Amino acid sequence: MDKAVKLITDPRAVTPINESILDDADEFDPASSDLPPIHVTLSDENCGMRLDKALSAHLPAYSRSRLQQWIEEGRVSVDGKPAKVRETVYGDEKIVVLPQLAQSDQPYLPEAISLDVVWEDAALIIINKPVGLVVHPGAGNWSGTLLNGLLHRWPQLTGVPRAGIVHRLDKDTSGLMVVAKTLTAQTDLVRQLQQRTVRREYLALVWGQPVSNGKVDAAIGRHPRERVKMAVSTSSSARPALTHYQKLATGTLDARPVALLQCQLETGRTHQIRVHMQSIGFPLVGDGVYGKQHLTVMFPRQALHAQRLGLVHPESGEDCVWSAPVAADMAALLMRAGIAVPA
Q: Which of 29, 116, 121, 170 is catalytic?
């Protein structure tokens, strides 16, 4: 174990807390599908409808956009001929659909990815996630993720939902994450997260000079206009979020004041610390999404590190705490700001 990453088992240490398109002359080949063909016979009720709408009514398990994609890819025939998305149907056609798994439906593949394992036992894995590693496959990142790496190193995790992942860190946030090796351990850890007894402490470098300590108790939901962002919100769909912060040190970057904060999460909403600190006027250094985009030349990512993780061990019942040093780029940033790098 790296000496800079410590394990503590002290009960006092944890405070509860797209394929090509076929022309009309092309043959329709049922063998091209990776799933059994779906046969649909339209009825009088479909007369005058567009094909995609009629199919959507008969195949509610698939979204209309998915059906349109299959038509465009030549995976749908009407009376034996390749279909067109906008063609009109008359109610007596025989349709064959060759479904294909979307990337999001396919089993995740194991990949050899270097992982910094801080701790491992029969129930848990503690990972020190590096900057740039996506935690879970998703749009634009279907491979090369932490989950793919976990499945390669621990093949038994195929039997645990999400390969044992119970919480996430943003791609450009470094630090500690817990992964469950068994379904029992995962269930217990999810319960602890729901009960807010998992201790998650982060180091964040922000622009400005907050007061010495405080908290942000504000619900977070999807941004009303920019749907890829989150925001403090009073919408009924927003979820409660609570962040405690304490100022550890102050400094300057390019003659602008900055402060190093220790932030403790009681909830785990998407981008929580980034959204909460921006909402009170202290955006994170390097955060081009929620912060001062013109200043990201100083640091190309949000200056955020999951420094400490505490929880009750799901098997032994011991209170455990793990800590990890900040990533090298953030350590260099702190020194540049005149702030001592936390041990």
A: 170
